[in-house]
Amino acid sequence: MLKGKKILIGITGSIAAYKIPLLIRLLKKEGAEVKVVMTPCAKDFVTPLTLSTLSQQPVLIEPYDKTDGSWNSHVDWGRWADVFILAPVSANTLAKMASGIADNLLTTTYLAAKCPVFFAPAMDLDMFHHPTTRKNIDTLLSYGNHLIAPQEGELASGLCGAGRMEEPEEILRMIRDFFFISNTLSGKKVLISAGPTYELIDPVRFIGNFSSGKMGFALAEDAAARGAQVVLVSGPVDLKPMHPGIRLISVTSAAQMADACFSEFKSSDITIMAAAVADYTVADPAPAKIKKSGNKLMIELSETTDILATLGKRKQEGQFLAGFALETDNEKSNAFSKLKNKNLDMIVLNSLNDQGAGFGYDTNKVTIIMANGAETEVPLKSKKDIAAVILNAIAG
Ligand code: CTP
């Protein structure tokens, strides 16, 4: 499964380091090339000789060789790897990774690495539950790093609870899944729209909506992680794409979003319209700021182009088109009618009636409905997890 894959392992000073020789053996057995970088403190828990014998590669600890001054390039190692697994990650290294501190070869390699990063925190119960640890993990997740969550169990201190590093067999399974998934959309172009649109009333005012863009951005990150070339057309949001495989086209109005989607659609294999596009725009925006007049102000609105319906009319054999629906009554039947009317292959029904779902939240609860009527109810999950469920349903 892992033949020819280049895997860099980073070990820090935690008792769980004793599990890494087994992880290296498992990875080597699957055909992977393995290199190890470790912090000076990690040497107290597992010897460089054990690691170099198992990996059949020299183990790097210091930035340069003190005897002859030769330099161990963190940049080269970071670029060599297809994946960088930092395991175990102590609370100290976790904090350094989250704040960009590069004071040893392992942390400088982390900063230089261009490949996907997995990190496996391992520490005592109370350290794991400290708010700063939670914050640092969240920061790394926001960088697109993958968490290998610690398990509950007996800890080296004798305490029992969360903090125990995941077992090597389970880490191997995650890495196998990762490489499998990272190929499922390779060679495909995926077009995704996200966020709100702003319709100008005058140069300083607009009609907008509360969409944060989080769902569309999560879909874009997930599609890119599966190897797709992603074009993300986004209205005004406070988010930035992390994955280098995402090309962002920033737009403001529904008309600009339509232009961008129409020109990218022809060459797209999969299109997902997650944007909250304005249904109405200001018919005649004022060229200068509108002054108070003491009377009622009437603004005439005209309907915007329905981007999704237009794409549905233009859809060719082999193209997959998905939309979102927000309904307040007869939710499923209204969503299914929308799917049929707009010639879609899938519609994702958003729930407005559930706490923690919809605009602005990091979580969502949806029902995925396919053109053949098959329904999948997805319980409340992070938007990242919902994105994975949606793309699994599309890409398998
Ligand atoms: N959509 C679109 N262009 C528009 C309006 C909506 O492409 N001008 C897309 C949205 O991105 C979403 C889907 O249509 O994927 C459904 O949006 P929704 O607001 O639920 O439905 P509408 O089709 O606008 O119908 P209504 O608001 O009347 O329910």
Q: What are the main properties of this structure?
A:
396 residues; Rossmann fold; five-stranded parallel sheet; 2 domains; single chain; binds cytidine-5'-triphosphate; eight-stranded mixed sheet; 19 strands; alpha/beta
Structural class: alpha/beta
Helical residues, percent: 25-40%
How many structural domains? 2
Approximate shape: elongated
Mean pLDDT: 93
In angstroms, what separates the terminal alpha carbons?
Answer: 18 Å
User: Which distinct ligands sit in these coordinates?
Assistant: cytidine-5'-triphosphate
Task: Kindly estimate the percentage of residues that lie in beta strands according to DSSP.
Answer: 15-25%
Largest sheet: 8 strands, mixed
The level-1 CATH class of the largest domain = Alpha Beta
Radius of gyration: 25 Å
Which CATH architecture of the largest domain would you pick?
A: 3-Layer(aba) Sandwich
The CATH topology of the largest domain turns out to be: Rossmann fold
Question: Could you give the order of strands across the largest sheet?
Answer: 12-11-8-13-16-17-18-19
